[in-house]
Design a protein that fits this description.
By secondary structure, the protein is an alpha+beta fold. The protein has four helices and six strands, in the order H-H-E-H-H-E-E-E-E-E.
Length: 149
């Protein structure tokens, strides 16, 4: 009985994850309004970008799709050398999604990086102001947000 319940839960989780994965691919592929840089990135990298977030945040599928496109745009246009290296080596690219308050403003925070050999490497933190549709790079040494254009 225990084994069958475990198997059921495993199958359920597996189908949930692949649905999210399939949805990401569909959203990225269906976006007609993409820059040449994003189009080139998709063609050259050839992999999906994975994401994860805590269940305590109730993000809509539409908002998660919007964030996916923001991350794709950032990755395709970033000057971050660590991120470029991850992409050049075709390592698994992923990002975390969470909410954070900074200077009395609410941001969606995206930690972009990779997981290799069980270790998480964040190449860049982004802060997204959804209200004003502004994406910021986090400048760690200066502890400031810099508009990404």
């Amino acid at each position: 009985m225990k084994n069958s319940i475990f198997l059921f839960v495993l199958v359920l989780l597996s189908s949930c994850c692949s649905s999210i994965s399939d949805k990401n691919k569909k959203t990225a592929a269906d976006s007609a309004d993409v820059s040449k840089e994003v189009s080139d990135f998709r063609k050259n990298y050839g992999k999906e970008i994975y994401y994860n977030y805590s269940g305590e945040f109730n993000y809509s599928q539409k908002y998660l799709e919007e964030l996916y496109l923001k991350v794709e745009y950032y990755v395709a246009n970033s000057k971050n050398e660590l991120l470029k290296n991850i992409i050049a080596n075709k390592n698994r690219l992923e990002y975390s999604v969470e909410q954070q308050r900074r200077d009395e403003k609410e941001y969606t925070v995206l930690g972009i990086g990779t997981v290799t050999e069980g270790r998480i490497t964040k190449a860049q933190w982004l802060f997204y102001d959804a209200e004003n549709n502004i994406l910021y790079e986090y400048d760690l040494p200066n502890d400031e947000l810099v508009i990404f254009e």
